[in-house]
Amino acid sequence: MFSVDRAQKALAFLTCAVSVLIGHAFTVGMYEASIVWPAIGFAFGFLFVYRQSDMTVAVFLGLYTGYHVSGQFFIGTEELGIVIMRGFLSSFTTVFAIILVREGIFRFFDFCWRLQRKNILLAVGSAFVISLFASIFGNSVLLLVGLLAWTEFWPSFLIWTAGDFLGIMNFGIPLALALIMDKRPSLPSFSLWEVGFYLVLATFSFLIYSEAVPVLNYADHKFLFFPFVVVAAIYFPFRSLVVGSFIFLAMMALRPPFPAEIGHLDYTLDVNILLIVVTVTFLTIRVVGMGLEKEQKELLDKKERLGQLVESMENLFMLSNEGPVEEKDRAEILTARIFRMIYRLFNRIDYGSCLIIERGELRYIDAVGYDIDYLNSIRFDIETWKAQLDEPLHMKNMEKRLRKSLGKHYDEYALRNPAIKEAVMMSVKIGAGLYCEMSFDIRKESDENFTPNILDYFKTLNNLLNGFFEAETSIYEHDEMKSHLVESLLKTIALLDPDMHRHSKRVAALAQEFAKAAFSDEKSVSELFWAGIMHDIGKVGIPENIVRKKGRLTVSEYEKMKGHADLGGSLLSASDVLGEISTYVRHHHERYDGTGYPDGLKGDEIPYETAILAVAEAVAAMMEDYSFSPAMTPEDIVRELHRERGRQFHPKAVDLAIEMIEDDLLADITEEE
């Protein structure tokens, strides 16, 4: 999965060797297996994350070194040949069992990447299968070579299986997560706070095991380790679980807190159950913390993405004001400007390119980070290069595609242009037989990547661009063009409720008709139309489960939903094109009696245009079917408006709406849909 450098191999060698020595402190007089066995856990972690042969060699040599040193100096085996044989067989059994299960059964499961229920079950399953296989294979080999008697087989099998399984659970899975989630530094850089934490843990462990403090002992006060677990889970990386558990065992090996007569079953249960509880507690806290962090990040991404969408739409409106596209050259100019606009939206994008395909010919018109003259000097295989995609394509192996397309030119291309890790490609039809293709790239050495939220944004933007050029070639009325663009925007914001598109169009149509009757100037009519289109745009910043909920909202959900008016107004206020309607969007949920939101405006403090928009939004909502409230008839809507006149709605706006509804306005609106 990941490349292996010398420091990582050295780390694997040392930790595997030392973990064997620590494990053998808990053998209860048996060499073949240990009741506390971190060695297989470390081997599991390294071999499941780093699948290269050189890591396999490092792990094997580390295990063998640990077995050899233990056999020579600690276990008390007399014959060197037996020490060598036992060490080789035990090391080989561990490595062989892990690789066999990894490649034969679990090669298609990448459970280490995410802490999800399915992945955790796969991890536990793999731990059990590896432990079972290693125990059966290892004990059988020892039996065949005469290093194990038949009467010792089943006790050894049970202890070996339990030790391996618990070793993987307590050390292997946490280590795999640490190697992946902690970004795998070549030489781990520990902060002073983290080093201090480990020193305090080691000191506390020594004191509680040795009973140097009269009131402190392991049997009665082992629960005091859990504050360390909580602190590690909240403030330190995943590796702190592995390092902390290792310190816990190392100090216990130096000063065992158990009396000599304790049985190995009690010993096993006490130590391993405590470690299991520690592991589960740590991972639970991290899962909850990661979930909260992810939710917060998603909300920030949504808000950022909404701002980018508004900015994109504003730029497209400004481009559309220049008039319709009639010539190929103008289409290319617009395309290049849009390419640069998209490139500037993302800090994570390092490079990009924009090309035109016409009648089988490919020509680059703009590029960032690439030699555009060189790109246009080589002949691409158009059949393998062109995409003409229906939606953006996320490519994680662009180098392979380039090799296929460039053929013999690839080596020269690689010397002249940067290497990239991944890219997003978009296709836009900009005219009859004329296509534009854009690529937005992340350099090979970057830690950034295209997240699902960013990919969603590209899909939205791709549809918006296609709508823009379709409108440019077929619609010459600018207001109609802008309507087409915003409708495309509303259709493709995936985080909004699917019914939002129809609701927004209906609010806009009602607001426009009310405005025509209320105002003589076209500016007010146009502004209320756009305010109707955009009035709920702030819902992109609200959690998806609340926006899409079919039933009534709870009190807490309603409080969160109320934030959409403030967010929508704030986003639009920053736009030169749409800023004029931001006040209407912000205050469309204010009430005439002053009990609305977000600012609690009352009476004539609410602009009359906003009062009209509020009535239009309410009428549109009453026209729609909900699981908790069926669509109302025009007569029912009129009665409701009468009831809320002077309470929720401005009296003058209500009188205007009632007059037009009684004149069959709603039927006309429905027919136009």
Describe the structure.
This protein is an alpha+beta fold and 673 residues long. The protein folds into three domains: 1-188; 305-472, Beta-Lactamase; 495-672, Hypothetical protein af1432 (Orthogonal Bundle), CATH 1.10.3210. Helices cover 64% and strands 6% of the residues. It has 28 helices and five strands. It is elongated and about 105 Å long. Residues 109-113, 323-327, 473-478 and 487-497 have low confidence and may be disordered.
How are the SSEs placed, and which strands pair?
Layout: H1 6-23, H2 38-49, H3 53-74, H4 80-104, H5 117-144, H6 150-181, H7 192-210, H8 218-221, H9 226-235, H10 239-254, H11 264-320, H12 328-345, E1 351-358, E2 361-368, H13 372-377, H14 382-385, E3 393-395, H15 398-406, H16 410-416, E4 420-431, E5 434-443, H17 452-474, H18 478-492, H19 500-518, H20 522-534, H21 544-547, H22 555-561, H23 563-573, H24 582-586, H25 608-622, H26 634-644, H27 651-661, H28 665-672
Antiparallel strand pairs: 1-2, 1-5, 3-4, 4-5
Helix pairs in contact: 1-2, 1-3, 2-3, 2-4, 2-6, 3-4, 4-5, 5-6, 6-10, 6-11, 7-10, 9-11, 11-12, 11-17, 11-18, 17-18, 18-20, 19-20, 19-25, 19-28, 20-25, 26-27
